[in-house]
Amino acid sequence: MLNQSSEAEEEEKEKKKRTRRREKDEEEEDEKENKKKRREQDDEDEHKEEDAMRRRRRRRRRRTGGGEKTKKQKKRRRRGRRKRKPR
Protein backbone atom coordinates (compact mmCIF):
# COMPACT_ATOMS: atom_id res chain seq x y z
CA MET A 1 0.00 0.00 0.00
CA LEU A 2 2.64 2.49 1.02
CA ASN A 3 4.75 1.50 -1.93
CA GLN A 4 1.91 2.08 -4.40
CA SER A 5 1.05 5.49 -3.01
CA SER A 6 4.68 6.59 -3.13
CA GLU A 7 4.90 5.40 -6.75
CA ALA A 8 1.79 7.40 -7.60
CA GLU A 9 3.33 10.45 -5.94
CA GLU A 10 6.54 9.95 -7.91
CA GLU A 11 4.57 9.75 -11.15
CA GLU A 12 2.71 12.94 -10.27
CA LYS A 13 6.00 14.70 -9.58
CA GLU A 14 7.40 13.51 -12.91
CA LYS A 15 4.28 14.71 -14.72
CA LYS A 16 4.54 18.12 -13.07
CA LYS A 17 8.23 18.35 -13.98
CA ARG A 18 7.47 17.44 -17.59
CA THR A 19 4.67 19.97 -17.88
CA ARG A 20 6.81 22.68 -16.28
CA ARG A 21 9.66 21.89 -18.64
CA ARG A 22 7.32 21.94 -21.65
CA GLU A 23 5.80 25.27 -20.57
CA LYS A 24 9.25 26.73 -20.06
CA ASP A 25 10.37 25.56 -23.50
CA GLU A 26 7.25 27.03 -25.08
CA GLU A 27 7.83 30.35 -23.32
CA GLU A 28 11.45 30.45 -24.49
CA GLU A 29 10.37 29.70 -28.04
CA ASP A 30 7.76 32.46 -27.90
CA GLU A 31 10.37 34.89 -26.60
CA LYS A 32 12.73 33.93 -29.43
CA GLU A 33 10.00 34.47 -32.02
CA ASN A 34 9.06 37.82 -30.48
CA LYS A 35 12.70 38.92 -30.47
CA LYS A 36 13.05 37.91 -34.11
CA LYS A 37 9.87 39.76 -35.10
CA ARG A 38 10.93 42.84 -33.14
CA ARG A 39 14.35 42.81 -34.80
CA GLU A 40 12.79 42.49 -38.26
CA GLN A 41 10.38 45.33 -37.49
CA ASP A 42 13.22 47.53 -36.24
CA ASP A 43 15.22 46.84 -39.40
CA GLU A 44 12.19 47.66 -41.53
CA ASP A 45 11.57 50.90 -39.63
CA GLU A 46 15.21 51.87 -39.97
CA HIS A 47 15.11 51.30 -43.73
CA LYS A 48 11.94 53.35 -44.01
CA GLU A 49 13.55 56.22 -42.11
CA GLU A 50 16.65 56.08 -44.31
CA ASP A 51 14.52 56.08 -47.45
CA ALA A 52 12.52 59.03 -46.18
CA MET A 53 15.70 60.97 -45.41
CA ARG A 54 17.07 60.17 -48.86
CA ARG A 55 13.84 61.30 -50.49
CA ARG A 56 13.85 64.52 -48.47
CA ARG A 57 17.43 65.24 -49.45
CA ARG A 58 16.72 64.53 -53.09
CA ARG A 59 13.67 66.80 -53.06
CA ARG A 60 15.70 69.55 -51.40
CA ARG A 61 18.40 69.27 -54.06
CA ARG A 62 15.88 69.44 -56.89
CA ARG A 63 14.23 72.51 -55.44
CA THR A 64 17.46 74.44 -55.11
CA GLY A 65 20.59 74.94 -57.15
CA GLY A 66 24.24 74.71 -56.17
CA GLY A 67 25.06 75.37 -52.56
CA GLU A 68 21.68 76.28 -51.09
CA LYS A 69 19.93 73.82 -48.87
CA THR A 70 16.54 75.50 -48.80
CA LYS A 71 14.19 77.20 -51.19
CA LYS A 72 14.48 80.39 -49.15
CA GLN A 73 18.24 80.52 -49.65
CA LYS A 74 17.72 80.02 -53.37
CA LYS A 75 15.26 82.91 -53.50
CA ARG A 76 17.68 85.16 -51.62
CA ARG A 77 20.44 84.33 -54.07
CA ARG A 78 18.20 85.04 -57.04
CA ARG A 79 17.07 88.36 -55.57
CA GLY A 80 20.70 89.38 -55.20
CA ARG A 81 21.49 88.41 -58.78
CA ARG A 82 18.63 90.45 -60.18
CA LYS A 83 19.75 93.56 -58.35
CA ARG A 84 23.29 93.33 -59.71
CA LYS A 85 22.26 93.11 -63.36
CA PRO A 86 23.21 96.27 -65.28
CA ARG A 87 20.41 97.84 -67.28
TrEMBL record:
Residues 1-87 are annotated as: Disordered. This is Uncharacterized protein. Residues 54-64, 71-87 have a biased composition (Basic residues). It comes from the Eukaryota.
